[in-house]
């Protein structure tokens, strides 16, 4: 068993667990981290980067199990304790998921072949930062205090914002949270709706990628590496979810905007000065 490889997998899991729910692009940071660590072969790394996001989203399911189960029961039966509109959250999540499924299906090959480039990642990190700054400087009154109250129209628009996350470096959490804030949700509702919205998208992507590329995992060590990364991402994400909700109730996202800009500048310097090319 290659202990160094397992340590690298754990480091990647930490990066995923921290970055998944922050508006900074977990995929972008995983790609960059994988390159810095010289982690695994390309095919295995590609699968790893997609699949370990499942660990982070399982943390959401674990932490919000009661509300998610209530929404699921409400969707099926039209009855759920304490909800004025029992089917509201379930239908809103379905509506918000549809755009990224359609766009992702139509443009998957183009995104993989044309957009995994340092200049794209750097540009999207910086553009996303500017969007965060704009929305934070121009706040909208909150119409929706809780994720369960978000209207179908607003859910659809948040879903369209999520499509931006198909571009490497943009960030799924960033696109959905900032989009939701701009559309009039409270900070807490925007963050939690983004958490919930990640469940069908990330679970679906992880399982489909595993089914399509499982042949690249040829040994028990390969599966162990994938398992370590996923487990670490679950544990770290579980801690970050609670910290994130506590943060947004008191703070804004400006620190993450500056972090995105700093990272984008580093990627640009690495590209133009050292000829850096994305390997993952």
From TrEMBL:
<dbReference type="GO" id="GO:0008360">
    <property type="term" value="P:regulation of cell shape"/>
</dbReference>
<comment type="function">
    <text>Catalyzes the dephosphorylation of undecaprenyl diphosphate (UPP). Confers resistance to bacitracin.</text>
</comment>
<dbReference type="Pfam" id="PF02673">
    <property type="entry name" value="BacA"/>
</dbReference>
<dbReference type="GO" id="GO:0046677">
    <property type="term" value="P:response to antibiotic"/>
</dbReference>
<feature type="transmembrane region" description="Helical">
    <location>
        <begin position="155"/>
        <end position="181"/>
    </location>
</feature>
<feature type="transmembrane region" description="Helical">
    <location>
        <begin position="223"/>
        <end position="245"/>
    </location>
</feature>
<keyword id="KW-0472">Membrane</keyword>
<keyword id="KW-0046">Antibiotic resistance</keyword>
<keyword id="KW-0961">Cell wall biogenesis/degradation</keyword>
<feature type="transmembrane region" description="Helical">
    <location>
        <begin position="193"/>
        <end position="211"/>
    </location>
</feature>
<dbReference type="GO" id="GO:0009252">
    <property type="term" value="P:peptidoglycan biosynthetic process"/>
</dbReference>
<keyword id="KW-1133">Transmembrane helix</keyword>
<keyword id="KW-0573">Peptidoglycan synthesis</keyword>
<dbReference type="GO" id="GO:0071555">
    <property type="term" value="P:cell wall organization"/>
</dbReference>
<feature type="transmembrane region" description="Helical">
    <location>
        <begin position="257"/>
        <end position="278"/>
    </location>
</feature>
<keyword id="KW-0133">Cell shape</keyword>
<keyword id="KW-0997">Cell inner membrane</keyword>
<feature type="transmembrane region" description="Helical">
    <location>
        <begin position="115"/>
        <end position="135"/>
    </location>
</feature>
<protein>
    <recommendedName>
        <fullName>Undecaprenyl-diphosphatase</fullName>
        <ecNumber>3.6.1.27</ecNumber>
    </recommendedName>
</protein>
<feature type="transmembrane region" description="Helical">
    <location>
        <begin position="47"/>
        <end position="65"/>
    </location>
</feature>
<keyword id="KW-0378">Hydrolase</keyword>
<dbReference type="GO" id="GO:0050380">
    <property type="term" value="F:undecaprenyl-diphosphatase activity"/>
</dbReference>
<keyword id="KW-1003">Cell membrane</keyword>
<feature type="transmembrane region" description="Helical">
    <location>
        <begin position="89"/>
        <end position="108"/>
    </location>
</feature>
<keyword id="KW-0812">Transmembrane</keyword>
<comment type="similarity">
    <text>Belongs to the UppP family.</text>
</comment>
<dbReference type="GO" id="GO:0005886">
    <property type="term" value="C:plasma membrane"/>
</dbReference>
<dbReference type="InterPro" id="IPR003824">
    <property type="entry name" value="UppP"/>
</dbReference>
């Amino acid at each position: 068993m290659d202990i160094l490889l397992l340590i690298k997998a754990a480091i990647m899991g930490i990066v995923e667990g921290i970055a998944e729910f922050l508006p900074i692009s977990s995929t972008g940071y995983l790609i960059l981290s994988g390159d810095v660590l010289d982690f695994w072969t390309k095919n295995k790394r590609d699968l790893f980067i997609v699949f370990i996001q499942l660990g982070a989203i399982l943390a959401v399911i674990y932490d919000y199990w009661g509300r998610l189960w209530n929404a699921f029961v409400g969707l099926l039966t039209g009855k759920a304790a304490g909800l004025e509109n029992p089917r509201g959250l379930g239908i809103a999540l379905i509506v918000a998921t549809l755009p990224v499924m359609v766009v992702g299906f139509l443009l998957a090959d183009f995104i993989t072949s044309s957009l995994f480039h340092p200049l794209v990642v750097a540009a999207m990190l910086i553009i996303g930062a500017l969007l965060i700054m704009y929305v934070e400087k121009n706040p909208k009154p909150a119409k929706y205090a809780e994720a369960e109250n978000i209207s179908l129209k607003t859910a659809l628009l948040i879903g369209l914002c999520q499509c931006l996350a198909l571009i490497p470096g943009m960030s799924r959490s960033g696109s959905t949270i900032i989009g939701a804030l701009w559309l009039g949700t409270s900070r807490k509702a925007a963050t939690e709706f983004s958490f919930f919205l990640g469940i069908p998208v990330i679970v679906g992507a992880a399982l489909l990628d595993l089914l399509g590329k499982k042949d690249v995992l040829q040994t028990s060590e390969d599966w162990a590496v994938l398992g370590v990364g996923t487990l670490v991402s679950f544990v770290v994400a579980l801690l970050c979810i609670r910290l994130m909700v506590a943060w947004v109730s008191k703070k804004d996202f400006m620190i993450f905007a500056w972090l995105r800009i700093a990272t984008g500048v580093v990627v640009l310097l690495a590209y133009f000065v050292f000829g850096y090319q994305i390997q993952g």
